Amino acid sequence: MASVEYGFHFVCVVTSCSSLGIYLKQRKNKNVVPSLVLYIIISTLFGVAGLLDSTMHILQEHRLVAPEADSSNWVFLLKTLSMDFVYVSGATLALDRVLIMSIHMKYTSWKLGKRLSEAALFFCFATSFFVVTSKILLPFEVQITGLSTTLMLQYLGNVYDIVVALEILLHVLFCVRYYRFVGNQQHSYNLTRISKANHITLFQAVSETTFCLVPKLLYKANVLFFDADVLWINVVSIHFTYYFAFHIALTSVFIIYKLTTQRVTYVVRRAS
Predict the structure, then answer these.
(1) Domain count of the chain?
(2) Which DSSP letter does residue 50 get?
(3) Three-state DSSP class for 148?
(4) Residue 92: CATH number of its domain
(5) What is the mean pLDDT of residues 146-163?
(6) Nearest-CA neighbor of 88 among 49, 58, 120, 110?
(7) Which domain holds residue 216?
(8) How far apart are alpha carbons 45 and 22 in whole angstroms?
(9) Which of 9, 32, 83, 220 is deepest in the core (most CB within 10 A)?
(10) Where are the transmembrane segments (predicted)?
């Protein structure tokens, strides 16, 4: 299973790094979307963290690294944090798109896109500082009495459950606002460049909901209401990391597609 997991994350790294490289090459057009850059970077971070974690599992299977090795704990923390950060960046991207479609002039003059991304980065750095400090000062495993890094991760997981709920709400709000936006602006070329980021956000929202949020909500419901007795939900939950990596890879491929097919529709319309 470790080799399969390695393959998933390897594809994730290749696609996310490719989308990041293509996007950075297009920065000269002065239409950089900070929240989209943040999402791509964090997706790349998740791919790298997942690849390291899979590599560690392979080494442990071949008894080259002890399961209780401290390096394994650090890699596990990196992967856990990167997955949480994907939710933060997804929520930031959705909120960014809602604001630019709702208050376009103020969004530009107040530089809301940059401010949102900075706030998301600060939240991620604060979370990282909290976890790293816990890892340095506290034992990793849960103790009978006292605190531990694992216990801190459980508390932090409760915070990120709120982030996930907020992201779901923002996805719904984005879809409603985007539907109205398309109806109002379908003949306006001045705002067509907004559409590319909107398409990516819509695809990201659908993909994450399908492969990440639904399995996550099923797991929560199974634990809260059925004492984790629903077998098929348990089976789905075991492979959650695979779904997450597939979502990142799929979204990265779509980003590459959108970035490498720019203005095709516009050229056809001009020719007609």
Answers:
(1) 1
(2) H
(3) coil
(4) 1.20.1070.10
(5) 91
(6) 120
(7) 2-271
(8) 17
(9) 9
(10) 6-24, 36-54, 74-95, 116-138, 158-179, 231-257
